[in-house]
Design brief:
Layout lengths: L6 E6 L5 H15 L3 E6 L13 E7 L7 H8 L7 E9 L12 H9 L2 E10 L12 H21 L10 H10 L2 H10 L2 E2 L8 H5 L5 E4 L2 E4 L8 H5 L5 E2 L14 H6 L19 H11 L7
Parallel strand pairs: 1-2, 1-3, 3-4, 4-5
Antiparallel strand pairs: 6-9, 7-8
Helix pairs in contact: 1-4, 2-3, 4-10
Bound molecules: flavin mononucleotide (FMN).
Length: 299
């Protein structure tokens, strides 16, 4: 393949690992295609690398129809550049549906202000990590579909294909309102409860993307900068963290992508298009159908 870009920077934010998996999958795919890739995980208060790439590939999970606030802060801290190409890939649990379609608008606006030319945007769907999992084999199928989505997007990027979406005004309003979730997240995170069987191992302290947890008198203590990513709750090795408020946001059975990958469906013969999915998961089904029919994704 004749590559449009040879030097690519991948920058990603991830809470529970779905976006990280996608970012690393892009890295290995792009390197296989002969590109030089640097990869950077977005965390609070990080320094920015020098800008010497031909394409910036930005990935983030959808949080309340938006990018997480840490991503906006990261973009705002970038140096201004002269028309470097950029691609924005959002990773959601529900797919390219209303009002998720507007989730890339603010990050694209901010990148444009910094001098980036955003010529490509797409949605990848991964198993949802909040409220409820998608029904039946959908989470497993999403894990299986990731390499195909990555291969399609990589091919589009290297061929110089442009893809931009035009979200409906209604979705934009929802997305703007969704930004209030940042403050809700700060409040929610401060109220996470540490249960008695906490082993004080410090896993949560070391893995929190916002550095919001510190060990105080041998007990994890939560400040007010929580990103609402749920990593600490799902990842705690002794399951000793529990939301103090709005418990419904956490999936009761837990969330582990490795486990989901192993949950092979009982009857894998049913074609994706015939699988039952409630109204809420229609975007997931549409995404899987589009990948299985090789038509080039969800938009
Ligand atoms: C606080 C919060 C808000 C979310 N909001 C949305 C949303 O608006 N739309 C959606 O489709 N998925 C939403 N999700 C699901 C995530 O986008 C999805 O599970 C993603 O794969 C998580 O990526 P990560 O594992 O890299 O953190 C939300 C998840 C969290 C924790």
């Amino acid at each position: 393949m004749m590559n449009t870009y040879s030097n690519i920077k991948i920058a990603y934010y991830s809470g529970t690992g779905g976006t990280e998996l996608a970012a690393k999958s892009f890295q290995s795919r792009l390197e296989t295609e002969g590109c030089i890739c640097t990869i950077e995980k977005i965390t609070d208060g990080m320094d920015h690398d020098q800008c010497d790439h031909g394409l910036l590939l930005l990935l983030f999970p959808v949080h309340a129809f938006n990018a997480p606030d840490a991503v906006y802060k990261w973009i705002d801290g970038l140096d201004t550049v002269k028309r470097i190409s950029a691609a924005v890939v959002s990773v959601s649990g529900a797919g390219e549906v209303c009002p998720n379609t507007a989730c890339r608008v603010s990050s694209i606006k901010r990148l444009t202000k910094k001098g980036y030319h955003v010529l490509y945007e797409r949605m990848i769907v991964m198993p949802s990590n909040w409220v409820a999992p998608a029904p039946g084999p959908l989470p497993y199928l999403l894990m299986q579909a990731l390499p195909k989505a990555v291969a399609q997007i990589t091919s589009d990027l290297l061929l110089g294909i442009c893809k931009k979406s035009k979200p409906f005004w209604f979705d934009r309003i929802f997305s703007m309102m969704g930004k209030l979730e940042t403050f809700g997240g700060h409040y929610w995170g401060k109220r996470i409860k540490v249960l008695e069987h906490c082993t004080k191992c410090g896993w949560c302290v070391g893995h929190c993307p916002s550095g919001n947890i510190t060990m105080l008198n041998g007990k994890p203590t939560f400040a007010d900068q929580c990103h609402f990513c749920l990593k600490c709750i799902y990842g705690c090795p002794s399951k000793a963290l529990e939301p103090g408020t709005c418990k419904f946001v956490v999936i009761q059975e837990g969330y582990c992508l490795q486990d989901i990958s192993k949950k092979h469906p009982q009857d894998p013969q049913i074609p994706v298009k015939d699988l039952k999915a409630g109204l809420f998961w229609l975007g997931v089904k549409k995404y899987l159908v589009s990948l299985s029919s090789n038509q080039g994704g969800n938009k």
